[in-house]
Design a protein that fits this description.
2 copies of one chain form a homodimer. By secondary structure, chain A is of the alpha/beta class. Chain A contains 22 helices and 5 strands. The model of chain A has no long low-confidence stretch (mean pLDDT about 85).
């Protein structure tokens, strides 16, 4: 089953082959940023939707500010790639410049936003589908879950394989959007650069408070998430990694500015308003192509690119979690690579979290947007200020203009972070503001724990050597049969002190057992106990405590449990339920060695 | 956590106390049948909805036929209680009269329908809520899941406790419906027994084929599911169990006839048509009370009684599964009673299956109805024909009229089953028709497997006695530290043949390990292996195969794995991941004894 879904395992040497050319890196690493064209402007407008047509024109200056912010951030991130060719992005920069705790803050912020990227992109992608097929609206949540599971399986198969498969939708999306823009501008030119439905410019409705405008701006900034993915993944590029990553980032910036700016402008000119059941981008396409082929084509490429956007997080999250696990801020399991060289645990954890988000927020992109992008802009801020510090320390060539760029980028990011936290606090941003410090606290505790344990485990090889101890083996039995005989044989093989332990639910069964036991005449001592709760766990635990308190108690108390080895996998549900329960409970009990002795069923 | 949700454990003696008085049995065991008033008539009408007003009058004769069928079934089931005071219903009767395979067929049919009852009742209950609060419509599936989990927890706490809490909604529902009927008839009387919207009687629209009428009838029969619950649960009644169960069944029949007949008639008189977003019962209440207090009151009692209806299955499914497990048709785990004396495994399995149904059918009652009731009517048929056979065999007092009643009931049930299977086949009934034989096949295989195993395990106590064997212990190590020293100490305690096994991912690490090992100078042999897949599982497996094939190989090959015992529960995610994986894989490997040696972390 695993083999069919995931494919055969790969060797470590294959790790080197998993490098990305620019042509492949752009779709994989930039689909998050590019695909936000599908929801960014809509997220901004929906904050002002209650005003109606009168508020539509304000979308345009907001979009312009977001494009300016994009340019500043692209310039800043070109420097990050230059300064940190080994990747890690905000996490690496912040750790390096301000110490591990600042790194932890940036790392945790990014992990949160990677998770949100998956939830937002998938739900927005499904919205593109339900715009084309409104019948599917009530299936939103199941479709989202299906989408996430699909991406998870792709990623468990390995990055490069995904890349070949995944590069086309992004290019098709870019081509579709640019083509639509060209057609849109020709159409607009023919109409004399003005439609009769184009909203009036310049009259500010008085319902439009500063808070609303800031919220709209903050929501629109969701279009900028994901531009850090390239700098994080610099080492995955083909040689020369730095130059290739920078070129890819420049292309991303150019395309995003063109696509976001163009569609926002055309949406404004067409006077389109947000609708609960249709996406703005879908409506824009419909206004040119009605429900013809191109409309459906665009909905499907939008869907596909948003699924890829979710996939961006599958490059980012597991890699970052592995870096943080290497630094002991996260459980070590994130460091283990799977059979197919991907960080399987990170991939699976990300999928589970995203599915939870989709279910809790019912697959509504608009409901998720307020949680989104705080983390990204917080990490942007840390990365940029970290870089400023670095330029001031190294004073390398061009440090003055370099630090000027990063100061500006950092300043803008900090402003956006604060605007986000304040303006969207009551809409859901508080959730992130609560979870962020909790995760930071968790990271610190994890690190401290690993350090303590590492110190405790270190030994002086000359002093501490393994040596034999006294051992007792306890075998819980439910009767006398072949399995019990086998388990007792094992017990006798490893210790000369063996006790069989029987739990009866009434006095008669206990007496019967004692009689049969003496008939069997094995020389092994039998201890019986009566359970009022039909549970053999409690009496066994009590007995183990008694044994532990014996005078001259053995150093190792072993409980030997039979394990039926079934011939067919599904036979497992017919056996071993008690055995699994006993083992699980005993594993967490102090000082008990648990041994499972296999018995092979003949059927 | 478990304690808070489930409560403290109960002793076996408390089992006797879990008996039901008539006053408690009626709401618990009859809520399924009674609550179907909320969807039965609507299910029938929705089959004819495409015809519009012209088809409405046909609902009335269909309802009349269903009430007649109800009377026949109640009379038949009074006999079942009389003949089988130990409960088990169709399963017991069919097993008893036609042998275990017929019993299995009836049992499996009932298990399927118990599961569907939970899914149908919960989704219909949530529909009552969304009729009152249409804003919640898009949250249907999460609300259904929440409902099922709530009922599961109640039932894991134990039946009688649930009863005290659960009896009121059914009574409130009965009172509400009867009160609404009284008001409705007074209203109708004042209007001269005719409204202007009352549909014309007697004109048969030509779109109305026989197939449509049969479908409407079959869907309406969903109102009769659940009447077998009382006979199944006869032994749970207070003494005298038979008389009390029969009286309760008579009350059920009377109430169901009154409530189903009355609301169907009033719905017809008001000329109400089915709507996708509102229930018929809700619209009927609205026609008398608008959206006043009583409307909301009825919606909530309808919701509550439908949740109780789901609860009926929580009395039936686990008990039946336990009976079938006792007869070895189901995995033994269904026989185990939990801490609180309920059959926990049955309760949990039922909940999981119902949640899957709700998710797959998107919480739509109408989509689930075609799957529903085939199983119930199949088991009705088997129970009635079984009873006929019994009367012919025993020829006890009154056997002639008794067998006449059961023949009639059995005949009607068989007709309904066939109508269901044919008319609804393409609408979803085929799913049940496919799953039913699969489950029967599963049951037969399970029984055969348990018999084979039981024969295999039986021993001649005089011949087979436990005796010691030769043992080798293999300890996989990742380095030299306190944990490894502890695990090796255990290994030395139980065998004089111990091998440490190290897997390196490159040659340098292997050489380093070998040097350190010879420095440590423990006298224990070290075997190293190189892994290209960063996995220690494969090399270990290869090594175990090698050991198994040694000349004079030991009888027991033991793998000792260290287990970190953490001080805080959440520290487990920081450790033991590799250990858990190794243990899981080794447990299913032939002839390997797996031992976990605890190591206590100081933090």
């Amino acid at each position: 089953m695993k083999r069919i879904l995931i494919g055969p395992p790969k060797k470590s040497q294959q790790l080197r082959e998993e490098r990305l050319s620019k042509l492949k890196a752009l779709p994989i690493l930039s689909s998050d940023a590019l695909s936000s064209v599908a929801y960014g402007y809509q997220a901004a407008l929906s904050e002002m939707a209650f005003i109606g047509v009168a508020g539509l024109w304000i979308g345009l200056p907001i979009a312009a500010v977001i494009v300016l912010l994009l340019i500043a951030l692209i310039l800043s991130y070109l420097q990050v790639i230059h300064a940190y060719p080994n990747g890690g992005g905000a996490y690496a920069v912040a750790s390096d410049q301000f110490g591990p705790i600042a790194g932890l803050v940036a790392g945790v912020a990014l992990l949160i936003d990677y998770t949100l990227t998956v939830a937002v992109s998938v739900s927005s992608g499904i919205a593109a589908i339900t715009t084309a097929y409104p019948n599917l609206l009530s299936w939103t949540v199941p479709l989202c879950i299906l989408g996430i599971i699909g991406i998870m399986i792709m990623n468990l198969r390995g990055l490069n394989e995904s890349a070949s498969l995944f590069m086309w939708p992004t290019y098709l999306f870019i081509i579709s959007i640019i083509a639509m823009e060209v057609i849109g501008f020709i159409h607009l030119g023919q109409a004399g650069w003005h439609y009769k439905q184009t909203p009036q410019f310049g009259v500010l409705p008085k319902e439009l408070t500063m808070l609303i405008i800031l919220r709209a701006f903050a929501s629109g900034c969701s279009a900028l998430t994901g531009i850090e993915a390239i700098s994080n993944a610099t080492p995955q590029f083909c040689e020369p990694t730095t130059r290739n990553a920078q070129k890819t980032l420049l292309w991303l910036g150019l395309l995003l500015a063109l696509m976001f700016g163009g569609t926002s402008y055309l949406t404004y000119m067409k006077g389109l308003q947000v609708s609960p059941n249709f996406t703005l981008l879908g409506m824009l396409a419909q206004s040119y192509f009605h429900t013809g082929f191109f409309f459906y084509f665009l909905q499907f490429t939008t869907f596909a690119v948003l699924i890829l956007a979710a996939n961006t997080s599958y490059s980012g999250f597991p890699l970052l979690a592995a870096l943080m696990a290497r630094d002991r801020f996260m459980p070590r399991m994130f460091e283990l690579r799977g059979d197919r060289l991907g960080y399987s645990n990170g991939i699976i954890v990300l999928s589970v979290l995203a599915i939870i988000l989709v279910v809790v927020f019912n697959g509504q992109t608009d409901a998720l947007i307020p949680l989104y992008a705080i983390g990204v802009f917080l990490s942007f801020t840390l990365a940029q200020t970290g870089l400023v510090k670095r330029w001031f320390t190294t004073r390398s060539k061009g440090w003055i203009w370099r630090s000027a760029i990063n100061s500006f980028g950092g300043f803008l990011s900090a402003i956006v972070t604060i605007v986000f936290a304040v303006a969207k606090f009551s809409q859901g941003a508080w959730i992130v503001i609560v979870i962020l410090p909790l995760l930071i606290y968790f990271g610190i505790k994890v690190r401290r724990h690993y350090h303590t344990i590492a110190n405790d485990l270190r030994i002086n090889m000359a002093q501490l050597k393994p040596h034999a101890h006294k051992t007792i083996v306890i075998v819980p039995i439910g009767g006398i049969n072949r399995v019990v005989a086998g388990t007792l044989s094992y017990a006798l093989s490893v210790s000369d002190q063996v006790i069989a332990f029987y739990v009866g639910f009434d006095d008669e069964s206990i007496e019967l057992m004692e009689n049969k036991w003496s008939q069997w005449n094995t020389g092994i001592r039998l201890v019986t106990a009566r359970s009022q709760y039909r549970s053999i766990v409690r009496p066994l635990m009590r007995f183990l405590t008694t044994v532990e308190n014996w005078e001259g108690a053995p150093d190792h108390i072993v409980v030997a449990i039979p394990q039926f080895v079934t011939r067919k996998w599904w036979h497992n549900i017919l056996h071993n339920q008690t055995s699994i329960m006993l083992r699980t409970i005993l594993l967490y009990r102090k000082d008990i060695v648990v041994t499972t002795v296999p018995y092979h069923l003949i059927d």
